[in-house]
Amino acid sequence: MATSVNLLLLRRQACTEILLAAKKNKGVKWEEIGTAIGRSPVWVASCVFGENSMDEESAKKLVECLGINDSTTAAILMEPPLKGQIPQDLLRQDPTIYRFHEINIVYGLALKEVIQEKFGDGIMSAVDFKCDVEEERETPDGPPRVKIVMSGKFLPYKRW
To answer: Which fold has domain 4-77?
Structure first.
């Protein structure tokens, strides 16, 4: 018997598949889609993968940009998601996703310590958060470097 959570996940998965197929068929990049709808390409991709929800205007612009004539897809994009649904085997198998996990393993405690040293007892929000991916070149002949810029609001822990 399917639970409401399972049905939600199936709807989101179907929506993601529709959107990714349309993106591939149109031959557009995340950067182009983000520009077309006036949003960050990282944020748009996270919405497509079901980790964030869109406002009505963004959802309508996205389906229009991808040439999808389906109001259900836009409606699903506006639903609050069930976050953190990345399969655990993907975390271990995909090299790029694993490297982000590895960064947290190696630098997580150090980043936490530096953040708390600078800001006090609290956390960096992933709710009030921005992220951008840039290309950085060290030398004209060397391979490019991936530069990821993350900015999250500092949230101090409350004492009561």
So the answer is: 434 Repressor (Amino-terminal Domain) (1.10.260)
Please state, in angstroms and rounded to a whole number, the distance separating the CA atoms of residues 2 and 62.
30
* Residue range 32-53: mean pLDDT, rounded: 95
Any catalytic annotation for residue 125? yes
Q: Which of 57, 64, 102, 134 is catalytic?
A: 102
For helices 41-48 and 4-26, the axis angle rounded to 10 degrees is 130
- 102 catalytic residue (yes or no): yes
| pLDDT tens digits along 17-27 | 999 999 999 99
Please pick, among 56, 125, 134, 151, the residue that the annotation labels catalytic. 125
